[in-house]
Write a structure and sequence with these properties.
Elements: H1 3-27, H2 32-88
Helix pairs in contact: 1-2
């Protein structure tokens, strides 16, 4: 799965969660205090899930940056070796 697809899935999930929670609150016959408690619990849970997803994505980005850095170092070393060999000729 590409990073773009993962981002779209996360956005879709969050959008659906927010819309669903809003509709549930609008149609739920309960006290304001109970509704506020539910909003607080929901926002804490959602915040935790978003944090986890961001950390996962951040880890994948770090891995890709590390891979790119290693490839760049290899190319630079190869270029140095080639230059060194040609300069000796």
């Amino acid at each position: 799965m590409s990073e773009g697809t993962g981002g779209k899935m996360l956005f879709s999930f969050l959008s659906g969660a927010v819309i669903g929670a809003g509709l549930a609150l609008l149609f739920a016959p309960q006290s304001g205090k109970k509704t506020r408690e539910q909003i607080k619990e929901f926002s804490e849970k959602l915040g935790s899930e978003v944090k986890d997803e961001v950390e996962k994505i951040g880890g994948r980005v770090r891995d890709e940056v590390d891979k790119f850095g290693e490839k760049a170092r290899n190319v630079i070393e190869g270029a140095k070796e080639t230059f060194s060999k040609k300069s000796r000729i």
